[in-house]
């Protein structure tokens, strides 16, 4: 497979693609004085998980979308010399596609997700990072209805929804590309793309229509396959398979695409091609959630980073506002020496003072 090189390699830039009226994306706190009000400490603490779920909602934030906190660009330079400052964002003018609040999940006695908040916006790549066992896959399974959360709100495009099965998630336009890709090796590209949703003309499959749509969707994603769309998947490279799996995810009316480690088995060139495709999906307005352990990939392609540590969301920040080192610290320690907690304490693990789930009364 060869992909045309994107001019400028991610020309939108991380954290770019500003939307009119979205102060959260302007990059400068000074540009958004009216829509990013300072929060009372109690509200900020609630973000960190110390408050009850009800306290997590900022006043009036339900419809407009609530962002958690960020390290401002202004403070970034300060971060180099000392403790940087977290600043609550208040409300964004753009409603998140996904907005999960206080999601809690246990498997028997083991609590895997502790009151996790997570948002994903249209037109953005949100990287979901965390060490092995942090709870990334479980959170994604909750989003995709594969696993039922014990409690927690689930808003889709600002509306509360019930997502208790994969079918319900799919009907909302949420697609997951799992690590194993779930492609059928013996089937060709067209058959894989349309598996389970074949186009028919009367009683027979409309092969010509499916071929045309397959070619269109691959071309629409700027994907050029060497060879026919009728070649079997077993004959494709790892990058090409990933592309087919992603194309299948966006074939319907998808609004959210979640990619689980899409480049984990790929070489340098193929990783770059897949990341270009990931960026392109977001540029077309999809909300893309990217699970990755690879910080280079995360920084190359994401607009936001959500960091899970031992089942707690310890930060959800703009990629442009944090450094590689800070994110690694968040992943490995649940805190960063150069990031303050929202309540002003420097460097303490966020949510570390939250009572363990085992000690909490049942919901
Ligand atoms: N069905 C289950 N039953 C019991 N424990 C589970 C189940 N699914 C996940 N866990 C546990 O939940 C924790 C989080 O797992 P999860 O797969 O969500 O982490 P992850 O961040 O995706 O890790 P990795 O990066 O290694 O894939 C792990 O300790 C795991 O053993």
From TrEMBL:
Task: Please state every residue range assigned to the domain named ABC transporter.
Answer: 98-335
Q: Low complexity compositional bias: what residue ranges?
A: 23-42
UniProt-listed InterPro entries: AAA+_ATPase, ABC_carbohydrate_import_ATPase, ABC_transporter-like_ATP-bd, P-loop_NTPase
Its keywords, alphabetically, are: ATP-binding, Nucleotide-binding
Region (Disordered) location: 1-42, 338-363
PANTHER family (UniProt xref): CARBOHYDRATE TRANSPORT ATP-BINDING PROTEIN MG119-RELATED, SUGAR ABC TRANSPORTER ATP-BINDING PROTEIN
**The protein's name:** ABC transporter domain-containing protein
Q: What is the lineage of its organism?
A: Bacteria, Bacillati, Actinomycetota, Actinomycetes, Streptosporangiales
